[in-house]
């Protein structure tokens, strides 16, 4: 740990006395020596003592083009010169309209209506209410949601109800509604020890059984397309998403794609759905939508679903849901500037060689004695540590092996995070080739230092 100034120590003391951090065991936090981030530039975070750290976690999966990107900075400043916020309740807003046009232009064909909110959880909550309400207008028996084992969709009550990871939902189960769960193909730990293609087919067969048995009451199916983020970047085999999409149509079940983490280039295409050319009925967007600058989310759906909420001239209806900062102009301005950068800098095209380089570096890490599995879809990557490669036996939870690896990497100037004993790598799309090599070199040394 680098030496800390008196100012930094004072800020840490105040933090520990006043703040309550997300997803954090505060007893452990109070005993720790954290960093205090004050500034950033490019792909680096800078602490209060001027130390630079490669932001290989994209500031919790949101930073796209890097920090302090002048084009986004300027767009927000220009918007501040006009209006910081104006409600969309009873009024329109230029930035929200212009962003909607841009989102519809890049979304899967057929998605036509944009409903704004603030974050990933709210985007999902809206999708669930929208799907439920839509089905109620058609068939009041369709009241259930199909979701997947290992899913994470946020921390509001509805999004937790379709999630599964115990540390997020277990204590709140009395508050949640019941959902129907299906297997997600975790091929590395497949209990039947099947090859990837066979694992996919077996999972799809199980999912279809569930669809068939519950079709009459299923309102919608929700999935994190291609990659389950909080489950440790679990990647589904090619064709699984396509097969699921076909089933949803076959059994008249709405498909909700939670692209909160996977959207805006993370998987190597603008959206994960683009890899298998599917069009969900509802798509949830957040995180990278503003390039990592401002809280903003969007739930996008079809004209068919939108029109079902209109009612009649004699009895007009509404979707009774909203947020104070819906369509906030500053967030929308940042998002428009971010989309401009995708076009101007050919971000997706320029990612491809970097994705390949990252793959090659990850394969080197896979050879380490205590690396059981590496997973990658674009810039969404995971390195799963195990105590025994042959048996895939995990380390003891008490050892906190991956957490120690992340702290070691931090001491060497790289910020990464772990989920249990899986190390998550999710750098900004702007990361340079030299930084990819640095990241993987530091990670390799950190793993070896902690495990050997």
Features:
452 residues, alpha/beta, Aspartate Aminotransferase, domain 1, Aspartate Aminotransferase, domain 2, 2 domains, 39% helix
Structure overview:
The chain is α/β, with parallel strands linked by helices. It has 2 domains: 35-65 and 348-451, Alpha-Beta Complex (Aspartate Aminotransferase, domain 1); 73-344, Type I PLP-dependent aspartate aminotransferase-like (Major domain) (Aspartate Aminotransferase, domain 2), CATH 3.40.640.10. Helix content is 39%, strand content 17%. The chain contains 15 helices and 17 strands. The strands form 4 sheets. Strands 4-12-11-10-7-5-6 form a 7-stranded mixed beta sheet, with helices on both faces. A 4-stranded mixed beta sheet has the order 1-2-3-15. Helix 4 (70-80) packs antiparallel against helix 12, helix 5 (94-106) runs parallel beside helix 12 and helix 14 (401-411) packs across helix 15 (433-451). The protein is globular, with a radius of gyration of 22 Å. 45% of the residues are buried.
CATH topology of the largest domain: Aspartate Aminotransferase, domain 2
CATH class identity of the largest domain:
Alpha Beta
Mean pLDDT comes to 96
The Cα radius of gyration reads: 22 Å
Main sheet?
7 strands, mixed
Give the % helix: 25-40%
Short description:
With 452 residues, the protein is of the alpha/beta class.
List the helices and strands and how they pair.
Blueprint: H1 6-18, H2 26-30, E1 37-41, E2 44-47, E3 52-55, H3 58-61, H4 70-80, H5 94-106, E4 111-117, H6 120-138, E5 144-148, H7 157-161, H8 166-169, E6 180-182, H9 196-214, E7 218-223, E8 227-228, E9 234-235, H10 240-250, E10 254-258, E11 282-285, E12 297-302, H11 303-308, H12 329-344, H13 347-365, E13 371-377, E14 380-385, H14 401-411, E15 414-415, E16 417-419, E17 422-425, H15 433-451
Parallel strand pairs: 3-15, 5-6, 5-7, 7-10, 10-11
Antiparallel strand pairs: 1-2, 2-3, 4-12, 8-9, 11-12, 13-14, 14-17, 16-17
Helix pairs in contact: 4-12, 5-12, 9-10, 13-15, 14-15
């Amino acid at each position: 740990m680098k030496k800390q100034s008196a100012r930094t120590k004072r800020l840490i003391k105040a933090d520990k006395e006043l703040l309550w951090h997300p997803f954090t065991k505060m007893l452990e936090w109070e005993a720790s020596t954290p960093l205090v981030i004050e500034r950033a530039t490019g792909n680096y975070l800078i602490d209060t003592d001027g130390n630079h750290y490669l932001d290989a976690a994209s500031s919790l999966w949101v930073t796209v083009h890097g920090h302090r990107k002048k084009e986004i900075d300027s767009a927000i400043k220009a918007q501040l010169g006009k209006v910081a916020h104006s409600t969309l309740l009873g009024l329109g807003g230029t930035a929200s309209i212009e962003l909607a046009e841009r989102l519809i232009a890049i979304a899967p064909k057929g998605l036509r209506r944009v409903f704004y909110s603030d974050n990933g959880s709210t985007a999902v909550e809206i999708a669930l209410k929208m799907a439920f309400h839509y089905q109620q207008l058609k068939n009041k028996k369709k009241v259930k949601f199909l979701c997947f084992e290992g899913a994470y969709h946020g921390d509001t009550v509805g999004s937790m109800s379709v999630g599964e990871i115990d540390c997020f939902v277990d204590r709140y189960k009395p508050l949640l509604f019941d959902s129907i769960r299906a297997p997600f193909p975790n091929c590395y730990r497949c209990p039947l020890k099947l090859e990837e293609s066979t694992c996919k087919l077996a999972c799809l067969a199980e999912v279809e059984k569930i669809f068939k048995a519950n079709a009459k009451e299923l309102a919608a199916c929700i999935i994190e397309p291609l990659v389950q983020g909080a489950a440790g970047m679990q990647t589904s085999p090619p064709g699984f998403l396509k097969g699921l999409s076909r089933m949803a149509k076959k059994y008249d079940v709405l498909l909700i794609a939670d692209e909160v983490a996977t959207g805006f280039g993370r998987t190597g295409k603008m959206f994960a759905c683009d890899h298998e050319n599917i069009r969900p009925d509802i798509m949830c967007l957040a995180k990278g939508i503003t390039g990592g600058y401002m809280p903003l989310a969007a739930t996008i759906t079809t004209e068919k679903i939108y029109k079902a909420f209109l009612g009649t001239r004699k009895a007009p209806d509404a979707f009774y849901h909203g947020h104070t900062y819906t369509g906030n102009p500053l967030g929308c301005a940042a998002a428009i500037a971010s989309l401009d950068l995708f076009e101007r800098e050919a971000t997706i095209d320029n990612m491809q060689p970097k994705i390949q380089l990252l793959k090659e570096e990850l394969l080197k890490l896979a050879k380490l004695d205590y690396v059981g599995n590496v997973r990658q879809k674009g810039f969404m990557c995971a390195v799963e540590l195990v105590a025994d490669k042959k048996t895939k036996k995990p380390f003891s939870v008490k050892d906190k092996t991956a957490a120690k690896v992340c702290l070691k990497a931090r001491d060497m100037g790289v910020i990464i995070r772990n989920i249990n004993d899986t190390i998550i790598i999710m750098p900004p799309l702007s990361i340079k080739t030299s930084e990819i090599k640095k990241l993987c070199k530091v990670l390799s040394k950190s793993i070896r230092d902690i495990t050997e």
